[in-house]
Structure formats: structure tokens, C-alpha cells
Amino acid sequence: MRIGLFGGTLDPIHIGHLRSAEEVWEGLGLEQIWFIPAGCPPHKDPEKLTPFSHRIEMVRLAIEGTSHFHVLPIEGEREGPSYSVDTLSHLALGASQDQEFYFILGSDAFNELAKWKEPRRLVDYANLVVINRDGEQWSLVEKTLKDLFPEYAPDEKKRTFSAPGKKKIIFYKVTNLEISATEIRKRRRSGMSVRFLVPNKVLKYMEEHGLYVKNPVSNPNSVSQWQGSSSEMAALISDEVLNNKGERVIILDVRGLSSVTDYIIIAHGYSVRHVQGMAENIRRDLKKLGVFPYGVEGEKEGNWVLLDFGDVILHLFLEPLREFYDLEGLWSEAPKRTVEEK
């Protein structure tokens, strides 16, 4: 039995995950796909991760009625960090002779394999299926192959790589659906729709449990010590944005319109580095004043960073994305104030 293994935080699972899994299942002739939500991924801050019980339930709801999709709670049942090599080793140890595993990962994750625990051992236990989309840089993939798997040789089409005594590395192109869990979380916190980005049952579960609306903080040392009003916090944060050269800074007063926050601040930067730098500097400077974000989304990508301070939510965009998402238009009923340099 040929079984695909689809891991990741799945926070939340979305249509892009499901479509990629379906295409790999069909294209490689697999019998089953096992979804394996990460328990405690070592590269993620556990405070910012949705509890495992919610993530695995959303997976169950998403795959309900699809007979070749299954969910495996193995990583949530194991204490400590979740390492893929440990999960694959455990599955291979308990596998029957007719079971063959295909570990599915994105090309971005493949290019980060050097940072994983014992990445060369992955191919001792499972074939690697690296899903890639149009426009992704093959040069980075080739470098990872050369650095980590130098003994592997390609077939004629350079899509399957093999080495004696090892499992295969297969590159498989899937439909380019530009959906990310990060954007879904940001949309939820912004009051934007995520319909048709996640299955209906998953959306209903999110709404019933208030997921991705507020980011609970379990560490008391990271809870804001702010004693002022929400309007004063909004003024403080907007000043910080201006100090970091944020462009067209506006404050939306959404009191009475939103159950999530009191104020939304929107600004943009002139480059990814500028947006990332603003977010980093604002967090650092506000920390000195005892103000901590409950959650941060999109800092790595840097084209839309959301900092959730509870009563105030700050959105830092690249200008084209600011125009595309048009949060000002979404909250057109809210009183708006443009913040000028003093």
C-alpha cells in the first residue's frame, strides 16, 4: 500500500493543502493520504500556535467524507518537539511489509531541510515528494539536492532522483493556489471573509470556537502591562509607526463595529525590508513600555504584517497589498483619522 504523509502545523488546514494532497494522491497513484498535524514544531513559538485539539479537529472536519484521506494524531500524543525524522522512523518501525510511505512537503520546506533534525535520514524511511508550483526557483532546489543528497542522480526529466539503498526524491507540480494559513489568520483578525479558502465545516468550527480572532497568551510575562486607555494606546502605536517612517498612517475607530478590537491602525512601507524593520522596531520599543503584542502574523514574508495588541490592531503593508486588501474600504463606516508628523 502506497501511503502519502502530509504534515505541517495545519493552522488551519485550507483548500490549498487539500487540493495539493488530492493531486499527489491521484498523480502518483497512492492508495491513501494520512494528514499528520504537528504537535510542537521546533521552529514555531508554542504560544502562537493554535492548540493541537483544535487543529486536528479541523483536519477531521475538512477530510470528512473523503475515503482516501485520514488523520493521524501521532505527533500530538508524543511529548517534546515534533521532528519529522522521529515520526517517519516510528511509522516505518510499525509498518507492514506492503506499506510504502511518501512524505509530502513543499519546495520551501525542502529548501529549509538543512535546519531540520537529521534531514538525510528522512530518505531511510520514506520517499520524499516535493510539491512545487509555477514560478518557484529551481536553483534553490538544486542547491539543496547537491548539499544534502549529493549521491542522488536524476532521471531523464529531472523529476525523480534516486540513490542506491535509499528512497526516492520526487518532484511533483501541483496547481498554484496562492492560499496560506498565515493570510487566513490575518483575514480573520481583520474582520475579512475566509469563505472558500477553507472548507465550510472548518469555517463553522472557527466561528463557533472564536479561532484566529484573538490570540490567547499563556505566558504571563508577555501580557501587556499597559494601564492607559485604548485610544491612548492607539496614539502611542501610531506615533511609533511615524517614527519608523511609516507612510499614510490612519487610525480607524471601530468601537461598536467590531467585537475584536477598538482601533485599527493601517500604514505601509516602501519595501519588504522596511515593513519588517518597522514591525521589529515597534515591538522592541513598545516592549520597553510594557506593551506586548498578543500575536504577530506575516513577519517572515514582510508584505503584510499584523501586530495584535488586543484593543489595537496594527497592519503594516507593502503599498500594493494595502490597496488590494483595502481595509479602509472594509471598515468604511468607522470614523477615520489620518496621523501626521508632529
The CATH superfamily label of the largest domain reads HUPs
Strand runs, count: 14
Strand order of the largest sheet: 3-2-1-4-5-8-7-6
Helix content: 25-40%
The residue-averaged pLDDT reads 90
Kindly name the structural category. alpha/beta
The largest sheet is: 8 strands, mixed
Discrete helix count: 12
Distance between the termini: 68 Å
Shape: elongated
- The CATH class of the largest domain is Alpha Beta
Indicate the CATH architecture of the largest domain. 3-Layer(aba) Sandwich
- Catalogue the unreliable spans: 216-223
* Strand residue percentage: 15-25%
H-E string: EHEHEHEHHEHEEEHHHEEHEEEHHE
Per the CATH scheme, the topology name of the largest domain is Rossmann fold
Task: Tell me the radius of gyration.
Answer: 22 Å
The number of domains: 2
Summarize the structure in words:
The structure is a single chain. The protein is of the alpha/beta class and 342 residues long. It folds into two domains: 172 residues, HUPs (Rossmann fold); 119 residues, 2-Layer Sandwich (Beta Polymerase, domain 2). It has twelve helices and 14 strands. The chain has an eight-stranded mixed β-sheet with strand order 3-2-1-4-5-8-7-6. Strands 11-12-13-10-9-14 form a six-stranded mixed β-sheet, sandwiched between helices. Helix 2 runs antiparallel to helix 8. The longest helix is centred in the last third of the chain and has 16 residues. 35% of the residues are buried. About 2% of the residues have low confidence.
